[in-house]
Amino acid sequence: MPLTDYLEKNARFCGSDIALVEINPELQESRQVTWKEYSLIETSPMKGYQKELTWIDFDRRANRFANLLLTRGIKKGDKVAILLMNCLEWLPVYFGVMKSGALPVPLNFRYTASEIRYCLEKSDSCTLVFGPEFIDRVESIRSDLSDVRNLFFVGENCPDFAESYTRLTNYCSSHAPDVMITDDDDGAIYFSSGTTGFPKAILLSHRSLVHAALTEQNHHGQTKDDVFLCIPPLYHTGAKMHWMGSLLVGGKTVILKGSKPEWILKAVSTEGCSIVWLLVPWAQDILDSIDRGDIDLKNYDLSRWRLMHIGAQPVPPSLVRRWKQHFPDHDYDTNYGLSESTGPGCVHLGIENIHKVGAIGKAGYGYQVRIVDPLGNDVPPGEVGELIVKGPGVMKCYYKDEQATAETLRDGWLFTGDMAQEEDGFIYLVDRKKDVIITGGENLYPVQIEDFIRAHSAVRDVAVIGLPDARLGEIAAAIVERKPGCELTEDELNAFCMELPRYKRPRKIIFADIPRNPTGKIEKPKLREMFGASRLVAKETELAQPDKE
Q1: Which partner from 116, 124, 174, 360 sits 20 to 30 angstroms from 504, CA to CA?
Q2: Are residues 452 and 419 in the same domain?
Q3: Using one digit for the tens of pLDDT, what is the confidence trace for 74-100?
Q4: What CATH number is attached to the domain comprising 484?
């Protein structure tokens, strides 16, 4: 049963119920409350800065776009790229592509023009759907896009080099096209986060997409009454696959355009959200706002909020402990996954295992996991090795990259590149394989150092990277972002780090902002580029030869 069948089921059995709500707090705060609907035929209820879409209208919009694509010669297996900010039309476009038999290719909204061109070429996309934020970038490369036959624009004031999605779909049939889709068909192409260079194109099947939905619903028990708050970008498998748990049960989803703490809490309060997936910086911001007194929880009705879960990056245990102090009744879960495993869920902590906070958990629904040495042999419990996973969500391949596929997929096992260890049946993420720092012959795992430093009351964020050193090979440098209004000196932080084993103490402390990508991951290549090759005006910490304690 392909994913599109679930949308059609919801349209049949709960068609008049609200499927999607889009909230744009910036419009509310600036009093720009006039909205023009995308569709001239179907209008959704509007409350100024808020738009809504029922399940039946969701399905009809998807059908219209699918039929438009078919009139343009799109055939089964073609690729249609989507370059949109989060909006009410994002998911109808995505499902419209799938209903036509084509593969949706979501693109990162932070891509430069050259990265957009690269991804369109790499995925063999013949059509691009884009929004107003990307006009300049698309226009600058359109002469190079010889294989992109269609440019569809979502929004007002369509540029002259594209066609209006709104105008064209209004004249298309709202009935489902007669296109046969099976679970084994290619389903979508997602791009890796590209933290080590140009991103890889990840080919997923319809079976993998459906399994991601089943995994999410199995882990978090969504019901029709749950309301999911979606903040992360929909182009990423994380947000999309968590939302698919709501798709399975016909639950409402609120798409919030912004991540300020007061916006999140207001959306939860006014829409009765019961499940919220946060990234570490957003959870941190909420807690800091409460602690500063900027937010008073008494001003919000949070009675329906039952689950807060985090993924996309290692989660500091100190953050979860703080969260439970303010929200003692919340269930909590940590989700681990990759785009190569169709998003989060191949490993998860489980809401019943909060006593094991710090672990990423156990094998997720339908998955197997192992921790192996460089030869692919299982390592004993407690030893560090590479985490590998197997299950229905594992990608088919890296599209048009046989070498990378062979390196990553071996006998059905996906080699994640993440270093982990197992204790008492639970998996603990140690670090990315490529981020391990070798200093004086010792392996340092930056996540362990970051977790320690992040517990300091004046630290908002921290990233530990390796910098070249003539004597030790590499040394650990901690780039530290202070909390607003907090004082913290280098000497104070060095004193705090004295509780670490000597060989784990950072040898450089640098105070700077920490760059993160839209899914919350620290962009360490940027930090290495910024600090690795330059002379730093940062005092080196004088430490003896590293040793273990």
Answers
A1: 360
A2: no
A3: 999 999 999 999 999 999 999 999 999
A4: 3.30.300.30
